[in-house]
Amino acid sequence: MAEEQTDSRGESRQSFFARQQLLDSAKATFQLLAAVIKNATLYPEAHPILLTAADKLRLKIEELFVGRKQVAFYLVGGELFFETLSVPIDQSLSLLLEQFVARSVGGIIFKPGLPSQELIRFATLMNREAAVFTGQAGVNEALDKERILHVELHRVMLVDKDIGSAIKEGSKKAAELYKDAVGVVKDMVQAVNLDKASNLRAVNSVVQTMVDNVLENRDALMGLTSIKMYDEYTFSHSVNTAILAVSLGTFLSFEKNQIASLGVAGLMHDVGKVTVPHEIINKPGKLTDEEWEQVKRHPIEGALLLADIPGVTKLAMVASFEHHQHGDVRGYPQVEGELRQHPFSQIVALADAYEALTAARVYYNSQMAPDEAIRIVIAKRGVAFNPILVKAFVNMIGLFPIGTLLKFDTGEIGLVLHQTRDLMRPRVLLLDKFDGSEKDKETEVSLLETAGGAYKRSVAGTINPHEAKIDINQYLT
Ligand SMILES: [Fe+2]
Ligand SMILES: [Fe+2]
């Protein structure tokens, strides 16, 4: 029995050895991968030397699968990571890393059940010219075409090298993720437009990345939803809605797979809009009754489109159908009998409404301040939205969401950067020049700060950045 009782030093020694072992296996895996990729340039697919190399690699990967659902390598800033461990690399591996970097590969994830033949096909693919690897959608397409089902390639980094710089890094990563996600939704909508087929894998992998990222740094993603693009409105709206829905799912401690399907539901909720003529969706003025009827069909069209796409979760279909039904009779499409919105539809509806309120639409020429949007959502609790969800949403976003401009009783002006435990007292960046230069200075303060037993500053009101002509995006990017 005594042997089982390890003191803390023993424990850390044990974990040190376990870690070293893991690092050795990870390094060996990568070396074997380098060998297979090299051999694939020298030998035909069925050559015994290539087959033997692929078998060895497969066995090594299988070793790493013990206790894991996937084996994930990441390439961050010229370094190789196995999960969060930095893998020491020598000359031979650095060449392989360059090869990956040239193809914009930031992550390689192996899934269980991976056959050796697939590794050979993967190696052959990695030897093809870098032009094949354009965008996440292009990469996924190439993998699909080569029938590589157990290897995922990601362009987005998920791992922080240094937890200390996590927030800064996190915002950078989130910006990339956002761009990527916009690209995927765009591809998706185009694909649906063309032949109703779609690249599910691309959507799922972005959502997975989104989930991972949100779990890592919610603030970074929440901040991004404040950055509205003046064009490609439906795309950015879908991405933002997904981010908000995923964030709320995370906030409510949903299971990871539930959060992922919430993400897909958020990304896809407005896909039916592709059946509405472009001129109507982008019409600056008021819609005619007839045009409005057409717009109102988008939840039905969306559900029909999603029903035709194999592998799309039923919930995405349901959420598309129900996201404008709300809790009252004023929603659409109208159905017979008692209205029962699925909880996921309720979440997507809430995220959708908040997103639409804060979005900067080219034809509205004005953007509602986030705190105003939150107040509208609160006012509709119990009417259009589930009050429990609204409460959680407000707790998550804060009464003064990230990106809100505040005026303080001291006469100063500040921009909300983070929430604190007190919904009324977020952390803010004090602004005086409004040209973005404050970002580099140490002017970040918490409204919880006190002096002589009293708060140093309190919120006296909010300012609409559009009316005040202050560009808040320069502080949030
Ligand atoms: Fe919609
Ligand atoms: Fe929407």
Give a summary of the structure in a few sentences.
The protein is of the alpha+beta class and 477 residues long. Helix content is 52%, strand content 10%.
Describe this structure in words.
The protein is an alpha+beta fold and 477 residues long. Helices cover 52% and strands 10% of the residues. The protein is built from 19 helices and twelve strands. The strands form three sheets. Strands 3-2-1-4-5 form a five-stranded antiparallel sheet. Helix 1 packs antiparallel against helix 2. The longest helix has 35 residues. The protein is globular and about 70 Å long. The structure holds fe (ii) ion (2 copies). The site of one fe (ii) ion has 5 residues, from helix 9. The site of one fe (ii) ion has 6 residues, from loops.
Helical content class: 40-55%
Strand order of the largest sheet: 3-2-1-4-5
How many strand segments? 12
In whole angstroms, the N-to-C terminal distance is 56 Å
Mean pLDDT: 78
Shape field? globular
How many DSSP helices? 19
Oligomeric assembly: single chain
What small-molecule ligands were found? fe (ii) ion
Main sheet makeup: 5 strands, antiparallel
- The residue ranges in which pLDDT falls below 50 over 5 or more consecutive positions are 1-14, 156-168, 193-198, 222-231, 361-365
Structural class: alpha+beta
Classify the beta-strand content into a percent band.
5-15%
Calculate Rg over CA atoms: 25 Å
